[in-house]
Amino acid sequence: MGNATTAEYNALQRYYIKSAANAAVVAAMRAARRPVKVHSRGIYVMSLLRNSPLKGHVRPGDVITKINGQQYQRASGYTAAIARLKVGERVRVTYTHRGRQHNVTVKLVRLTQTHRAGIGITLTDRTAVTSTPHVRIDAGDIGGPSAGLIFALETYQQVTGDNLRNGRIVAGTGTIDEQGKVGAIGGIDKKVSAAAKAGATIFFAPDVPATRAMLREDPHYVNNYVVARRAAKKNWYQDANSTRAELQQAISYLRTHK
């Protein structure tokens, strides 16, 4: 949970899953060649680094909407705007907290990982999505970003009428972006075990090989796909399937393995 309170942590998980659901809808609609539009609502503050100048002003779950009076369409726009500035420069940050707008001016700090100027937060896009047909994902009480791939597969199946599941119990995990790229998650061996107990015979796992940057951040990183294969052998019979996943790869696999 880091430095977050229970209430903040739970709120963050809801923001994560809402963001994951939106990205899943976009990826699925694009794969299905159906109309979809993304509307930017700013960026969620997911956490603050130790040296963040926004500490005491911004809380996890707040939404940053402008930098120096400028609003950007995506999180990458905000980070790119800040990256052009220097450590020690002052920036005006506009944000909303509990529905009310605030402004604060802070000095940029040097970020440990990139050595560039920054405001010291982790973030994710706050978006709204409109599509034809309209899609609404009810995630119930779960949180976090790990359901993105499965959200996308179910959305694709519902929208196209393509019976990908074909009566099988299909499980999987992985974050997803709007281009359908699947990212790594935590606790995949536990998820494989739970899927096996639920009777799943296919489990989709992110296949994200370690890069130098990833190993610098986490020297103990192990590819999700490798861990999932080990867990599958431990929990399932030999004829069970485990496959690596990008959205289009997952769709193709389900179509050709009925």
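That was protein one. Protein two is written in the same sequence-then-structure order:
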Amino acid sequence: MSDRHLLVVDDDDRIRDLLKQFLNRGGFRVTTAANAEGAERLLGTLDFDLVILDVMMPGEDGMSFARRLRATPGPTAKAPILMLTARGETADRIEGLSAGVDDYLAKPFEPQELMLRIEAILRRAGPRASGEAPLSLGRCKFDPVRGELTRDGAPVRLTEAEVDLLRTLAKAPHAPIDRYTLARDDADAAGRAVDVQVTRLRRKIEDDPKTPRYLQTVRGVGYLLAPD
């Protein structure tokens, strides 16, 4: 079960940290966010097997965020959601289930009950789809599904823009992609931000960034990713 990745969204620092520690001990990989805005950024760059979502949060509340996730095109809309809340009335549970959540647990709760509910949701969701296979880049490996880069088995920190760039290149390995396609928005019409991101990525991937083997420049076009 250690390959299952959970996203915990709660504005209470203490509860967030306690949940992370408990779920880590249960064999899960856990990432946390303090609000819906932070959770949305993470969901845009990483894939999660389950979202544990608090209802009462500053800014957008959990109910609204759950509805929005379910209406979002793509795999994010399918991520199972377990909602945590201090509001345990029947009407509140009905509202949560109507918002598209998979289960609803009222605070305070027993940690073991939380674990059993998570395991039940994951069983119903079935095995994770294999998705795109990780790419070997010498001492590095990039997992497009998770958006994660490792070097000699150790995780390498990537920015959101770097993950987006690698994912785009990984969709067509060994094929050149022009810098305008790789540019994230119209404000970077010349694709110069992409050049900066490529330079930074080469420092993380290549043994010799000045003579790149895996993240190559295609003169007059853009870049290509050349996995082993």
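The first strand starts at residue 5 and ends at 9. Keep this in mind for the problem set.
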